[in-house]
Each structure stands twice: as C-alpha cells, then as structure tokens.
Backbone:
C-alpha cells in the first residue's frame, strides 16, 4: 500500500512541475533529506505528551493515576494512529481514553498534593513525525542511499522541524468528555440549622464533576421556593465540599425539596433537603404559681431540635372566689431543642387560672399548661396553719383546711356573705397566717388544688377547723364513740355555727407534727343539735 | 289592806306597762335583727335568707344599737338596778343576744348599777349580731353611764376591740381608790387559735379609762371572781414543734391593772 501511495504522490509532483512550487512550497529539507509535500506520507503519531493545563498553576505537570498509583509519564506513548493522505494540512484524530473509575491527578511528580479530576484540563501536545518511504526520492534527497523502508528514518527536532507538526488538543479529563453525558453529582448532604418553615441554616454536601474550566460552581437551586442566600466551596479535597446557606420561607410546606447544581456540564442529580413540620410540646401540664414566684418555668421542646424562642399566650379561664385577676408574664428565652420559660404572675395577691400555650413560627404546642395562681392569702394561710402543724408529706391536712375555708363560700348565709378568700382569710380568724410572699412547695400546690377545686379532699360541709390538744382529742374520741349529742368542751374550739356545731373527724388527716397524738386538724360543720351527734367521722 | 291593794294594783299596772313596752321593743328588735342575722340550723331557711347589702346591714346594726341604748336610757329613768337593766336587755334581745348564741362563752348582755364617788353609774354591755352563725359579725358595745346632776348620761362607749368575739364582762375589785373596774374578755369566733382578748376598764363616775389590756391569748378561757381572775391558755413553744405549753395564770388587781399572782404549767 505504501508503495502505491508513494508512487502516486511522486507522479503528482512530477505533473505539477516539480521545480519551483515544490521548492517554494513543498520541498522541505533536513539533514536526512528533503520531503516534498506532494509525497504520499504515512503520518503516525509516534508519541503523545500529556501534561496538565496551567490552570492549576503548575509549571509543569504530569498525570498520575491515583487509582492505580501509576504515574503517567510525559511520553505517554502512542495512543492512536492516523493515516492521512491529505495534502497540505493534515488532520489527525488522537485521543486518550481515561480509564473509567480512575482518578487522575495533575501536578508535578513528587509534589502531587491536589487532584482535580475536572479541574485539570489537559492538553495533549502531540508531535508526529512521519516515517516515509519514497522510492523516488532516494535519488532526490540525501542520504544516499535512501534508507530502506524496513529502516525508516525518524525525523525529530531539530533536524527537520519543518516536518514536525505540533499542535495542542485540549481534552478535559472529566468523565464528561465535554459532551455533557456526565453531569455534576451531589452527595452526602448534611444540614446545620432549622429545617422548618421560617428556618435558615446551611447545607453541606459533596459535589463531583462540578466544574468546567472557568465555569465555577454553577447555579445552586433548592426547590420549593427555598432561598439560597449564598454558597462557598472548598476545593482542598475531592469531591468538593460545598456549603450552601438557605432561608426557608415561613409559608413553606413541610416535605422534601431537591437541591441541584447547574453547571456547564448540565444539571446535577437532586439531593434532598427535608423541611420538617415543627412540633412543639410543653410541660408541665399544670403549673402552680404564686404571684411572688420568680423561678417557675414552662419547658417547651421543639422537634426537630432547632434554635427557637417560644412565644407564649395565656388565656384566662377563671378566678373563683377572688377579688382580683392576676396577669401572667413570660420571659423571652431562647434555646435549641428546649427552652425553659420563666412564668411570673402579678399583681401580688391576685389570682386566676390560665391556659398558657407556646407557639413558634406558626406551630402551636400540642398541649397547654394550666397555670394556677391561687390567692396569696390562701398560700399564706395553708403555710401558716399547716406547714408545721401537719406532718411532712401530709398534704391531706393542708388541703383539708383549705377546703374547709372554701366551703364557706357555699354557705354565704352562715358566713355573712363572704365569698372570696381575701375576705374570708383574715388575721382575726386564722391564727397562723404567714407572711410568705412566694409559693413554696407543697403549700402552693395544695393552695392551687384547693383554689381550682382539684384537691380531692372532701371535709363534708365543714367550714371551720382547729388543732385539738391531746386532752381535747380524747374528749372528741369519747364523744364520737358514744354518739352523744352533747358537744365536748375542748381547747381551741373556734365555735363556728354556735351551738349547732358538730365536730368532724377526718380519718385521712395525719397526726399533729407536735407529737401530741391528736389529729392535726378537727373540722366543724352545721348540725341539728337535738338530732345529730356531736362528733362524726369521715374518711 | 286597801292601801296595800292599791299599791299592788299600781305596781302591777306599772309592770304590765313596762312589759308591754319591752315586748314591743323586743319584737321590733328581733324583727330588725332577723333581717341581718340568720341563726337557724334549718338549711331550707338558710337558702331563703338573703343578707342585705353592706349599707343595709350597717344601717340595721345602727338602728339596733340605738334601740338598745334608748331602752337602757329609758330603763335608767325608773329606779334602775343591775338586774332590771340586764333583764330588760335580755328580754329585748332574746335569742339573738350574745349569751343566747354563745351561752358557754358570753354573759352579754351585762349590766351593773353601782355608785362611785357619790355618783350612780351603770356599766353595761351588749352586742349586735349580723351575718350568720357560721361566723357572725359581732359588734360589741360597752357603755358607761353616770347620773350626774340628776340625769343619766352616757359617759363612754368602748369595747370595739371585742368585735367578732364572744365576750363577757364582770366587775372586779378595783386597786385604785375612786374607780370601779370592769373586766371584759372575748374569745374570737371562728379563730383557729381561739384567741382571747382582755381589757380592764375603769370608771370614776365622770369618765373612763382603759387600765390594762392583753390579747392574742391562744385557747384562752377566763374565770372571774371579784378578787381573782384565772386565765387558762396555751403558749407556743419556741421551737414551734412541741405541743404548746398549757398554762394557768392567776391574776389579781394591782396598781397597773391585773397582775400575775401565780402561774401553773399544767402539762408539766
């Protein structure tokens, strides 16, 4: 084949008037002789030199297959052959096919610290020479004799620079091959911040195949109208670490939204950013509060765990048997995951039962807290009368005397129309009113239970009480056993209902903490003295 | 015989007249009292009873007070004795007197007609009750009258400190020449501490003074004789834990009022 081609080329040169044209245009001579353009040559890429493009600012660079740890030398070797018979400009089609799944690293050997599969664009500088065999030129060009076809002469620079064609073919070493068949890939999404409507934060993810030369990161998009407020990328490792900041509009519906990157290579796969439904819970379900308390809190927890500042609203429910309504105040505390909000009540001495509900960014707590603010005078009375009188843990005693006091409100005829704690609990009728201004435990809890009617401590219709002495208790027991209608005379008898009074022994009331052996309290209710015993007993 | 018969008829008519007047005043008193004071154990009646507004109560209390005072002043015009005045008051107030409501703790109404420094005097006490017998509102009135220049005059009305108490009054021996001494003591109704108050008043025929007072006597009870007062009460222990100490004090009139003569610790 070669031979016939060469013969044809020689004939053409001869027919064109070989002398001037060939000399001026086509005859190229070197040490090894001259080559006429008209010659039929077989161009063979003898070697291809790959080196990274200067974008990485490497003075010189090579390739390093970091998958196989194989260093690709500059002289990469013949990667393709192309035979052309075209006269004049020769075109070749040389290519190198990176091995799929291999990562290639650009940079000088020994200093390879960064690898950029996409970032590095390589030029394939190729130099080809042609081996020729021109039987007709044997006489025409030196040397003489012409080298045998079996021993072709390789012309290399600088001997025959004119015949050494060089060029640059740019080849991106991304898998895209420049034809958009391998668009960017995103993976490994993590979120820091609020993935809730109205929330903001940042997304960290890894991006592969992201860039073309000078193309940058491209355009980041989050579906659902979620605003990308900025992004940065870290190219110190591969895949790139991309950080995207976002703002989720308040009206965004909970759900999954795709995060994509659009580059010159195309659109990435979407990775999912989930916008969660905010869930709020609060505790306790009931909070007993004094108008003097400054340390009572409601704990609000939010799911997902994000930074938030719960906003409380309070609804007034009732204020039984009190002269003035209290108001609730809530501290403006923030936190992540859970927040303790301090609840206070004013005005001092006032009362009320409220429903406190936490909200955040449109989300409403799944349950409310019932805040019970009993009248301070009730707390003071329970504390003063029973904090030391009843044994520790004997909440029954404390609640019972509160209930007895409350019973007066249902007997207005007998108690001069008194219908409020403030009017009923006076220093002239309650020997033990304390001056505490806050709500210690359990006193505030017992007061709240009495105030709200959740005490579960009935004392029949008794509306008065007293603490008997040991001898008084003996007399009461005797009367109870005998069922006499004659009221025993005992110390500390408050004398309610005049001669129509009846002592009520509540069995569940503990003994007096003073060790007398008597119950902490005996109660008094109305009776018909001619028909009913002087003392009765209730559970 | 006729002379005695005539005297008897005269006395009988006078008594009838007095009783007739008293009955009328008593009816008025009890009717008015019934508007502001409920003291029945009948729950149905209780449900029907409607206490007037505060102004109405105060107005009624004032009217009852005035009715009692007028009755005293009227009675004083007719050879008064302690018994006649006290009987008149008991008849007037009837079952709504303090003694009727708290028979074990009160001797009110009380009246004592005496002479001091050549002047006839009356020491009296009564109470007007309102509200209900659960814990009634008790208005105490301790009045001292003297017959100066032949006319009975109210010298002083004291005792407001015994409001809300079932109180009593008794004459005690005066330790100050030219004075009559009266002890008033009252036990707070509905009080979890059953606290007692005591006041000692002096009357010299022209004016009164408070000689001595004591209050916050927990669980206190009093026994009074002319020369000696026995006060039984409880004193909280300092640690606030142990049972209160039970004391019995014997008090005797002295220059400063009632002075402790003896103290007994009953629980020790």
Residues:
């Amino acid at each position: 084949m070669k031979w016939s081609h060469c013969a044809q080329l020689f004939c053409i040169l001869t027919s064109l008037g070989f002398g001037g044209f060939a000399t001026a245009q086509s005859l190229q001579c070197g040490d090894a002789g001259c080559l006429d353009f008209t010659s039929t040559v077989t161009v063979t890429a003898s070697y291809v030199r790959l080196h990274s493009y200067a974008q990485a600012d490497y003075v010189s660079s090579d390739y390093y297959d970091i998958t196989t740890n194989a260093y690709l030398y500059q002289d990469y070797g013949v990667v393709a052959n192309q035979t052309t018979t075209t006269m004049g400009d020769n075109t070749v089609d040389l290519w190198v096919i990176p091995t799929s799944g291999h990562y290639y690293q650009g940079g000088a050997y020994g200093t390879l610290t960064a690898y950029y599969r996409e970032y590095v664009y390589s030029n394939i500088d190729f130099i080809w020479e042609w081996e020729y065999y021109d039987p007709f030129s044997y006489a025409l060009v030196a040397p003489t004799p012409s080298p045998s076809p079996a021993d072709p002469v390789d012309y290399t620079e600088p001997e025959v620079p004119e015949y050494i064609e060089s060029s640059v073919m740019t080849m991106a070493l991304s898998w895209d091959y420049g034809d958009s068949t391998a668009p960017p890939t995103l993976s490994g999404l993590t979120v820091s911040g609020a993935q809730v409507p109205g929330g903001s934060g940042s997304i960290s993810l890894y991006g592969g195949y992201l860039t073309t030369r000078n193309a940058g990161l491209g355009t980041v998009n989050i579906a659902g109208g979620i605003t990308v407020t900025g992004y940065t990328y870290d190219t110190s490792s591969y895949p790139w670490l991309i950080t995207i900041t976002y703002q989720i509009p308040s009206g965004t519906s909970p759900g999954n939204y795709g995060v994509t990157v659009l580059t010159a290579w195309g659109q990435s796969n979407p990775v999912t950013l989930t916008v969660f439904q905010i869930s709020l819970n609060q505790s306790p379900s009931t909070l007993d509060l004094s108008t003097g308390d400054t340390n009572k809190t409601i704990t609000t927890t939010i799911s997902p765990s994000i930074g938030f500042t719960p906003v409380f609203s309070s609804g007034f429910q009732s204020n039984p048997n009190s002269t003035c309504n209290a108001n609730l105040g809530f501290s403006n505390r923030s936190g992540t995951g859970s927040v303790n909000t301090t609840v206070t009540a004013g005005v001092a001495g006032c009362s009320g039962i409220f429903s406190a509900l936490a909200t955040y960014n449109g989300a409403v707590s799944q349950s409310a807290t019932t805040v019970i603010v009993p009248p301070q005078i009730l707390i003071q009375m329970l504390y003063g009368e029973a904090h030391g009188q009843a044994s520790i843990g004997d909440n029954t005693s404390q609640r019972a005397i509160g209930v007895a006091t409350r019973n007066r409100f249902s007997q207005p005829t007998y108690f001069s129309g008194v219908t409020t704690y403030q009017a009923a609990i006076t220093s002239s009728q309650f020997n033990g009113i304390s001056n505490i201004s806050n709500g210690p435990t359990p006193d505030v809890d017992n007061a709240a239970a009495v105030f709200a009617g959740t005490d579960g401590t009935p004392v029949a219709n008794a509306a008065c009480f007293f603490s008997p002495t040991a001898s008084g208790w003996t007399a009461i027991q005797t009367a109870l056993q005998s069922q006499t209608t004659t009221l025993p005379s005992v110390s500390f008898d408050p004398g309610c209902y005049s001669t129509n009074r009846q002592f009520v022994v509540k069995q569940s009331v503990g003994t007096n903490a003073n060790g007398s052996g008597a119950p902490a309290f005996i109660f008094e209710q109305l009776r018909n003295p001619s028909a009913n015993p002087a003392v009765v007993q209730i559970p | 015989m006729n002379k005695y018969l005539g005297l008897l008829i005269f006395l009988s008519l006078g008594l009838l007249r007095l009783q007739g007047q008293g009955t009328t005043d008593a009816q008025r008193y009890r009717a008015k009292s019934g508007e502001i004071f409920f003291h029945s154990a009948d729950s149905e009646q209780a449900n029907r009873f409607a206490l007037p507004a505060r102004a109405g109560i105060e107005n009624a209390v004032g009217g009852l007070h005035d009715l009692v005072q007028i009755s005293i002043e009227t009675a004083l015009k007719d050879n008064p004795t302690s018994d006649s005045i006290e009987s008149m008051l008991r008849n007037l107030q009837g079952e709504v007197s303090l003694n009727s409501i708290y028979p074990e703790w009160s001797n009110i109404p009380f009246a004592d007609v005496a002479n001091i420094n050549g002047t006839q005097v009356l020491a009296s006490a009564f109470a007007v009750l309102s509200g209900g017998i659960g814990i009634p509102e008790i208005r105490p009135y301790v009045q001292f009258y003297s017959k100066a220049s032949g006319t009975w005059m109210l010298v002083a009305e004291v005792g407001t400190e015994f409001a809300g108490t079932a109180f009593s009054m008794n004459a005690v021996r005066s330790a100050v020449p030219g004075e009559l001494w009266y002890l008033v003591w009252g036990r707070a109704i509905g009080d979890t501490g059953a606290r007692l108050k005591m006041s000692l008043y002096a009357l010299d025929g022209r004016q009164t003074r408070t000689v001595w007072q004591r209050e916050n006597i927990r669980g206190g009870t009093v026994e009074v004789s002319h020369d000696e007062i026995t006060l039984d009460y409880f004193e909280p222990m300092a640690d606030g834990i142990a049972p209160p100490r039970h004391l019995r004090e014997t008090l005797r009139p002295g220059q400063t009022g009632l002075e402790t003569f003896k103290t007994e610790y009953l629980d020790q």
Observations:
- The radius of gyration of chain B is 21 Å.
